[in-house]
Design goal:
Distance between the termini: 27 Å
Radius of gyration: 20 Å
Bound molecules: zinc ion
Oligomer: single chain
Number of strands: 13
Number of helices: 4
Structural class: alpha+beta
Shape: globular
């Protein structure tokens, strides 16, 4: 069963996914879904025999996170009984791709997980998937079918930002705005249904929006020695700022593992992060 419909020719990402109980590790909570990517299964036995890869339909679905285009979710009768139709297939609306991460599946192979969150009705206007020219609009209407990143400002993240004087712990920038300095509280181990990270100060970084996004997407991480790593890490290497508020290595390690970031400080022989 083709779970993800979409190709890399589409610049906006995948069009739809089918949830039909194909993977035991899928989680269906109704308006939030952890969806497993495709690939690595033996075509005959359907058993997982290899790591999945960030390519083809998986890459198309990950692209939705950058473009903000939602995917259509279709549930099949084989899925979670609480949220699936009793027979056949049902279109269940638009979901945004909020997170993509790796973890080990039941069979011990690296699996891609997509966190999907249902759009509220008012955000879920019909998407135009045709070949409209990307021209601007004289009277811009509210852009339908795309999404924005929502950064929640809690008392705890405010405390972390204050401790750091709104200076990004990665790049040391402090953004000044007419209404005061701006930074974001970034959870290292994400809260919520799958990761279940705690809302404690050791699990929060004070980051600028750029570094926050790069960290969430796994382009930046922190080694066990506190050095920035990942494809967006600066040269020469830079240590993160921790003199104002310390963060916990165990959450940073979890972040490295879920984004398959190799820790150069690790002494484990042959540890390559894959
Ligand atoms: Zn920064």
């Amino acid at each position: 069963m083709a779970g993800i419909w979409g190709t890399l020719k589409s610049k906006s990402g995948a069009v739809s996914i089918v949830l039909s109980g194909g993977y035991e590790d899928d989680i269906d909570d109704g308006d939030e879904i952890i969806y497993t990517g495709k690939g690595g299964q033996d075509p005959k036995t359907k058993k997982q025999v290899a790591d999945q890869e960030m390519k083809e339909q998986n890459e198309a679905l990950a692209r939705n996170m950058n473009t903000g285009y939602p995917v259509r979710v279709i549930r099949g009768y084989q899925g979670d009984s609480k949220h699936s139709p009793s027979s056949g297939y049902r279109y269940d609306g638009l979901f945004r791709v909020e997170d993509v991460f790796w973890n080990k599946g039941i069979a011990g192979f690296q699996m891609l997980r997509f966190k999907l969150v249902q759009l509220a009705d008012q955000d879920a206007g019909e998407t135009k998937s045709g070949s409209e020219a990307p021209s601007g609009q004289k009277k811009p209407k509210r852009k339908k079918g795309s999404t924005v990143r929502i950064i929640r400002d809690t008392a705890l993240s405010r405390w972390v930002k204050k401790q750091n004087d709104y200076i990004c712990q990665f790049c040391e920038e402090r953004l000044e705005t007419p209404t005061g300095p701006y930074a974001e509280g970034a959870h290292i181990k994400q809260l919520g249904m799958h990761h279940k990270g705690p809302d404690v100060k050791e699990n929060i970084l004070c980051l600028c929006p750029n570094c926050h996004l790069l960290f969430d997407r796994g382009a930046l991480g922190v080694s066990s020695e506190g050095v920035l790593i990942g494809q967006a890490a600066p040269e020469p290497q830079r240590f993160i700022l921790t003199d104002r508020h310390s963060v916990s290595e165990k959450y940073l390690k979890y972040h490295r593992e879920t984004h398959r970031l190799h820790d150069p400080s690790s002494t484990t022989p042959g540890a390559r992060g894959n």
